[in-house]
Write a structure and sequence with these properties.
By secondary structure, this protein is mainly beta. The chain is built from two helices and 15 strands. It has two domains: about 120 residues, Immunoglobulins (Immunoglobulin-like); about 90 residues, Immunoglobulins (Immunoglobulin-like). A hairpin with a 4-residue loop joins strand 1 and strand 2. The termini are far apart.
Length: about 230
């Protein structure tokens, strides 16, 4: 019993000693003292582009942040730039140029004047290029009809893809010159009042990979259509 009593007494005094010690007293044993982490910022909004990417970095309110460093490709590539004092607590635009088409994982760090570095802000994004563009399909035409008395060609369009930006319709006018009209995705019918009967229609569509994308991509070829006049 005496051994158990002595052990319990030792544990009691150790607990009492620990309670009298500041909770963060261990920090004095860390090399260089307490570690300071600058604010990493709140979030990143990624906008894809043609062999590039635009980042909208929503910064926190930490006034110590003076620059950032961005890594990708397992830190084989990087980008570093200052953070102006007047954008602290606001949004900063960052452009990453010359990116081969593909998906990327990023790590963003904030730094202060003493060289302290934040915990990483991790995110991913994608750059688009010729592979994406070569796979685009033009918005299709549902039907055509020609009103001979009004000398007007009506073109009815099928519903576009959700990321369609516009479609160019090319035709030969009654003056034998090539002309074109551009219609948005909300347009379901086109009226061409100077089309030369018997000539071919050509059309080609443009798209964004997603609604936030900063660049427009256009199908590589025009589709063509012969109009049958009844």
């Amino acid at each position: 019993m005496s051994t158990i009593y002595k052990l319990a007494t030792c544990l009691f005094f150790l607990a009492a000693f620990a309670s009298c010690t500041d909770w963060d007293d261990f920090k004095k044993y860390q090399a260089g003292g307490e570690i300071v982490y600058p604010g990493k910022g709140d979030t990143i909004v990624v906008a894809s582009g043609r062999n590039r990417m635009q980042l909208l970095w929503v910064l926190g309110a930490d006034p110590r942040v003076i620059k950032y460093k961005l890594y990708w490709n397992n830190k084989a590539d990087s980008l570093e730039a200052p953070v102006p004092a007047d954008v602290i607590g606001d949004t900063m635009k960052i452009m990453i140029e010359t990116l081969p088409e593909g998906s990327y994982n990023f790590e963003m760090f904030s730094l202060d004047a003493k060289g302290n570095i934040s915990v990483p802000l991790r995110f991913n994004g994608r750059a688009y290029g010729t592979n994406y563009e070569s796979g685009l399909l033009n918005r299709s035409i549902r039907s055509t009809s020609y009103n001979d008395s009004l000398k007007t060609l009506e073109v009815l369009w099928n519903d576009p893809d959700t990321v369609n930006v516009n479609t160019e319709l090319k035709y030969i006018g009654i003056d034998s010159k090539t002309k074109s009209v551009v219609l948005g995705p909300e347009i379901t019918a086109s009226e061409v009042k100077d089309w030369k009967p018997g000539t071919i229609l050509s059309y080609r569509s443009s798209f964004k990979p997603d609604r936030k994308a900063i660049d427009v991509f256009t199908a590589t070829k025009y589709d063509t259509l012969s109009v049958t006049i009844k």
